[in-house]
Amino acid sequence: MRVLVVTAVPAERDAVTAAAPERREFPLPGGAVLHRVVPDGGAVVCDVLAAGVGPAAAAAGAATALTAAALAGDPYDLVVSAGIAGGFAPAAPVGALVVSDALVAADLGAQSGDGGFLSVTELGFGSHTHRAPEELVRAVAGATGAVRGAVLTVSTATGTAERAGELAVRHPGAVAEGMEGFGVAEAAAAHGVPVLELRAVSNEVGPRDKAAWRIGEALRALTGAFGGLFPVFAAFPALPVLGSSSGSSPATLAESLPVQGG
Ligand SMILES: O=C(O)c1cccc(C(=O)CC[C@H]2O[C@@H](n3cnc4c(=O)[nH]cnc43)[C@H](O)[C@@H]2O)c1
């Protein structure tokens, strides 16, 4: 089972890899670095990438890692967007874990002119929602105690009670907002790989008060969650893929890429 985990910042990446005893580093084309952990005797290979803040950086990083793995003949079976998040009260208080049943682009669309908002779905440009596999969501929620629901992706983090209220009305099933999930999901969908979002709540969605963010607490919750997740990933059925896992351990991904003209 090969899992790609995409975080925004290195502190989140390190919180994920801290759930396993050791890690190795693999450079990606373009200079980003995958941090690989292989917990529990090798049933799961988990590559963790800090791709940057926001949906565009997340999509670019995830797509690069997915493409490199596919070209190397070792495609991923699952992509996870992970990190800290704002939680919608009262469903997801600070310190809680949330798992997405849906990854939703909450501010990708157009203003309607009458103060309303039209999503990309309503505009006819694809879908503003990606669904996570139901069986996996249930298993992750069971193993970690995560609150399940929609996780919104925003390019502008909410900073007022008014905006928090607008989002809650538009997305009654939302439990949290982050800034990367939908971008990661778009890259996963382009590769036909299932996606999931798992976040630990560092702050409430609402008036901006960075001093009240409990980032350390959220990062520790993320580490604890991944400790319980690796066995869940190991049990998740791999999708049929073209080609097979090489089973080899190249020092870099580049080493395992096909030789041009060879
Ligand atoms: O300053 C630090 O030490 C630090 C450590 C880890 C992460 C951070 C971040 O600022 C991460 C930004 C990241 O977090 C997500 N996030 C968290 N709260 C919210 C929110 O209320 N609304 C939207 N996004 C949120 C988001 O995915 C950011 O990319 C700092």
Describe the structure.
With 262 residues, the protein is of the alpha/beta class. Helix content is 31%, strand content 27%. A five-stranded mixed β-barrel has the order 5-11-10-6-12, surrounded by four helices. The longest helix is centred in the last third of the chain and has 21 residues. The C terminus is likely disordered. It binds ligand LNDFFVEH. Ligand LNDFFVEH binds next to helix 1, strand 5, strand 11 and strand 12. The site of the ligand O=C(O)c1cccc(C(=O)CC[C@H]2O[C@@H](n3cnc4c(=O)[nH]cnc43)[C@H](O)[C@@H]2O)c1 has 20 residues, from helix 1, strand 5, strand 11 and strand 12.
SSE blueprint and pairings:
Blueprint: E1 2-7, H1 10-17, E2 24-27, E3 33-37, E4 45-50, H2 55-71, E5 78-87, E6 97-105, E7 109-111, E8 117-119, H3 120-123, E9 129-131, H4 134-144, E10 147-153, H5 161-170, E11 174-178, H6 181-190, E12 195-204, H7 215-235
Parallel strand pairs: 1-4, 1-5, 5-12, 6-10, 10-11
Antiparallel strand pairs: 2-3, 3-4, 5-11, 6-9, 6-12, 7-8
> Within the largest sheet, what's the order of strands?
5-11-10-6-12
Q: C-alpha Rg, in Å?
A: 18 Å
CATH fold type: Rossmann fold
* Most strands sheet: 5 strands, mixed, barrel
Q: Low-confidence parts, pLDDT < 50 over ≥5 residues?
A: 239-262
CATH superfamily: Nucleoside phosphorylase domain
Hetero groups in this structure are: ligand LNDFFVEH
The total number of structural domains is 1
Number of strands: 12
Shape: globular
